[in-house]
Amino acid sequence: MLRTNQTFLGYVKELYDNQQRRENIIKKQYSKGQKLFFQNERATKVMFIKEGVVKCFFTEDNGKEYILEFLGKGEIIGEIEFIRKIVSLCNIEAMTDVTVYAVSPGYFAELIKNDIKLNNLLLDAFAERIINTASRASFQQLYTIEHSLAKLLELLSKQDMHMSKEDIASYLGITVRSLNRAFKGLSE
C-alpha cells in the first residue's frame, strides 16, 4: 500500500551529496495537500521522495478520483513521463509535508544514458510496480469490499497512517456511499 525504496533513496542522496553542479539536483519542500504533479501537464523535474508520503491518483472526466498508490521515502516520480516524453499521467499530491530531491531533465537524461546502476534500479522499480498492480487488481476482483476494507484498515493501522473516507473510497475504487455500507457490514 505504501511503497518505499531505500535503495533509490541512498542512490539519489549520494548523487546529491557529490554533485559538481548544484542545480542538477535540488531539494524541494511541499506542504500537505500541495500537488507535485498535475495530470495532463508537463512535468519539469524527475523527483525522488526524501521524506513524507504522496498519493498518486487519476481524476476522471466525471470528476471522480481513483488512487493508484501511496509513495514514500525513496520512490521516484515523473520518470515514466520523462522517458516516454509525455504529460503527467496522474496527479501527485502530498499527504504529509514532503521533501523531494528534484533532478533536472538534462541531468536525468545523462544518468539514463551513462549510469547502469540507475537503469538497474529503474528496471527493478518497474517490475515491482507491475507485480503490485497485478496483485491489487486480482485482490479487488476476488474479495468483497468488506474484506478489502478490513485489510486496508489493518495496513493503515500498521503504518500509523490516516486517510479520509474519500481517499479510502478512491483507493478501493468505490463510492463513499458503498464505503459507508462496507463500514456498517464490518461493524455487524
Task: Name a few traits of the molecule.
188 residues, alpha+beta, Jelly Rolls, 2 domains, 5-stranded mixed sheet, 4-stranded antiparallel sheet, 48% helix
In a nutshell, what does this entry contain?
By secondary structure, the protein is α+β, with helices and mostly antiparallel strands.
Strand-helix topology:
Layout: E1 2-3, H1 6-18, E2 25-30, E3 35-37, E4 46-51, E5 54-59, E6 65-71, E7 76-77, H2 79-84, E8 91-94, E9 98-103, H3 105-114, H4 116-142, H5 145-158, H6 165-172, H7 176-187
Parallel strand pairs: 1-6
Antiparallel strand pairs: 2-9, 3-8, 4-7, 4-9, 5-6, 5-8
Helix pairs in contact: 5-7
Number of strands: 9
CATH superfamily of the largest domain: Jelly Rolls
> Number of domains in the coordinates?
2
The main sheet orders its strands as 1-6-5-8-3
CATH topology of the largest domain: Jelly Rolls
How much helicity do the residues have? 40-55%
* Beta content: 15-25%
Radius of gyration: 18 Å
Folded structure, characterized:
This protein is of the alpha+beta class and 188 residues long. It has two domains: 2-142, Jelly Rolls; 143-188. The protein contains seven helices and nine strands; from the N terminus they run E-H-E-E-E-E-E-E-H-E-E-H-H-H-H-H. The chain has helices spanning 6-18, 79-84, 105-114, 116-142, 145-158, 165-172, 176-187, and strands at 2-3, 25-30, 35-37, 46-51, 54-59, 65-71, 76-77, 91-94, 98-103. A five-stranded mixed β-sheet has the order 1-6-5-8-3. Helix 5 (145-158) packs across helix 7. The mean pLDDT is 90.
